[in-house]
Design a protein that fits this description.
It is a single chain. The chain is of the alpha/beta class and about 550 residues long. It is about 45% helix and about 10% strand. The protein is built from 26 helices and 14 strands. A 7-stranded mixed beta sheet has the order 8-7-6-9-10-11-14, with helices on both faces. The protein has a 5-stranded parallel beta sheet with strand order 1-3-2-4-5, with helices on both faces. Helix 22 crosses helix 26. The chain is globular, with a radius of gyration of 24 Å. It starts with a helix and ends in an 8-residue tail after the last helix.
């Protein structure tokens, strides 16, 4: 090691703390800087876990985990991997939402890269300053649409940090190859602007051509610095998310997790639900509440899944009903974004559904379309009302109802209510974790249809296969791989979850990675390799946290 003494103990990638051997302590100038007992990683995990349990709130636990991450990455990831089902809601959603809101207050030290608009002429220099020279995965946000909480400005950095923690803990990608990035374009959040502790650029948000030019400066600098990097866009606002994806998806290996990752996990969960009901995906209508980039991304992926199952493309498209705050989207509406217009129903087919105000609300859409599935990505809590759920349940034996908005406080309905209103017949999945529901003597496990089942495996499959681009087919392969792992579809036992337990997400990520790698080769965006070789490559690329000797 080039570092010695306190410099070594303050480097989170090299620090082993009390696990340094006597020989290492003597050779590296650590004698006297550590207590005399030499511990194992297991000893340290035990102490760290007790400290975690001693914290009284999820936010305090989040702060503690972040401290471990900044002091000793091997210990942090070993702890997280061992207790992933318990700690994922703390390091990621829903607690990460509160952490973003309070990021300036709880920040203890710098982590990641802050690229500010007013320093945009120095981006190449910023990338050169990154300690990790072999960056392979970047998660970048501009902090404008953090979960369902809106504009958090520089506080949005909590999301890339949390995402990349799961890339490493679940996907097995070495943290030394990851980089969280915050594009600081200012903020329009008055609470952030008036906060004396706010760490970001205290300026209203940059918009229009200046905004897109700033993002382009960053992307081009990344391409120069790390031309083979996987760049994941995260939590960009509705007007920017799709245009940025379309601009850069053919320039480098990139994807938008809110559009494509959310779509893949939603479709994977839908496919699992259809396996339970015994129906094919294109057999019935599907209603979406929320017609932003996430909702429309799920809808388009659902259409592709229908077509793969043999449904005519125009028929598949006709089975999708998108509802936003102005009601059901149809081709008679003005001001639709291009990706919304692609999903608009024909006005003459639905105009009799309208109420006195001329809008077709969610209840009318459900009552008339008679959907097999209802998905919520609105970011607005409580919109799946008892009347709507009961109307749906009256029309179908096993209604599929997914309130997917994050965090928990933004969920369109409580799973306990959905199950109660449907006499336990509904197949339920949510975006954030919910406790099991007891109903009529049965325990219903609530599936968390969370992107964490998809993006760590996507990243691992992309890196292991050497993929040069990310395709829709790779996301479809990820969705289908997830559906194949559904416990409820496999055993049919009442109350069993639609998706594997979160504790198994590392295993799930391996299966997803292999499926993604195969799809990358099949679509010609990765070097030729047979299935057996790809599985070997995936396993070889997986990192397990352990101290080097």
């Amino acid at each position: 090691m080039a570092k010695r003494g306190r410099d070594l103990l303050t480097d989170p990638k090299l620090n082993k703390s009390t696990a340094f051997s006597l020989e290492e302590r003597e050779r590296l100038g650590l004698i006297g800087l550590l207590p005399p007992r030499i511990e194992t990683l297991d000893d340290q995990i035990t102490r760290a876990y007790r400290a975690f349990l001693s914290k009284s709130t999820p936010l305090e636990q989040h702060i503690l985990l972040r401290r471990f991450q900044d002091e000793n990455e091997t210990l942090f990831y070993a702890l997280l991997s061992r207790h992933l089902d318990e700690m994922m809601p703390v390091i990621y959603t829903p607690t990460v939402g509160e952490a973003c809101e309070k990021f300036s207050e709880i920040m203890r030290g710098p982590h990641g890269l802050f690229v500010s608009f007013h320093e945009r002429d120095r981006i190449d220099e910023m990338l050169e300053n990154v300690a990790e020279q072999d960056v392979r995965v970047i998660v970048v946000t501009d902090g404008e649409r953090i979960l369902g909480l809106g504009d958090q400005g520089a506080g949005g950095m909590g999301i890339p940090i949390g995402k990349l923690a799961l890339y490493s803990a679940a996907g097995g990608i070495h943290p030394a190859h990851t980089l969280p990035v915050l594009l600081d374009c200012g903020t329009n959040n008055p609470d952030r602007l008036k906060d004396p502790l706010y760490i970001g650029w205290r300026h209203e948000r940059v918009t229009g051509d200046a905004y897109f030019a700033f993002v382009d400066l960053f992307v081009q600098a990344v391409k120069r610095r790390w031309p083979n990097v996987l760049l994941q866009f995260e939590d960009f606002a509705f007007p920017h998310a799709s245009p940025l994806l379309e601009t850069y998806r053919d320039q480098l290996c990139t994807f938008n997790d809110d559009i494509q990752g959310t779509a893949a996990v939603a479709v994977g969960t839908l496919l699992a639900a259809m396996r339970v009901t015994g129906k094919s995906l294109g057999e019935d209508n599907i209603v979406f509440l929320g017609a932003g980039s996430a909702g429309c991304g799920i809808a388009e992926q659902t259409i592709r899944a229908m077509v793969r199952q043999g449904v005519d493309p125009s028929t598949a498209r006709s089975r999708i009903f998108m509802v936003d705050r102005f009601g059901l989207i149809h081709d008679g509406m003005e001001g639709l974004a291009p990706f919304q217009a692609e999903l608009a129903q024909r006005r003459d087919a639905v105009e009799t559904w309208a109420g006195d105000d001329g809008q077709i609300d969610l209840l009318s859409t459900v009552s008339n379309a008679k959907p097999a599935a209802l998905l919520g990505v609105s970011g607005q809590p409580g919109l799946f009302t008892e009347e709507i759920v009961r109307a749906m349940a009256a029309q179908i034996e096993r209604p599929v109802i997914f309130p997917m908005s994050n965090p928990t406080s933004r969920s369109e309905a409580e799973p306990s209510d959905i199950l109660s209103w449907t006499e336990g017949r509904a197949l339920v999945a949510t975006g954030s974790p919910f406790a099991p529901v007891e109903l009529n003597g049965a325990t219903h496990q609530i599936a968390q249809s969370n992107n964490s089942y998809i993006f760590p495996g996507m990243g691992l499959g992309i890196l292991a296969s050497g993929a040069r681009r990310v395709t829709d087919g790779m996301f479809m392969a990820a969705a289908e791989a997830l559906a194949q792992l559904s416990p409820l579809a496999q055993n049919g036992v009442l109350g069993t979850s639609l998706l594997p337990d979160v504790a198994r997400v590392r295993e799930v990520s391996r299966d997803v990675a292999i499926a993604v790698a195969k799809a990358a080769v099949a679509e010609g965006v990765a070097p030729e390799a047979d299935d057996a070789a790809l599985a070997v490559k995936v396993d070889a690329a997986r990192w397990t946290p352990a101290y080097e000797t």
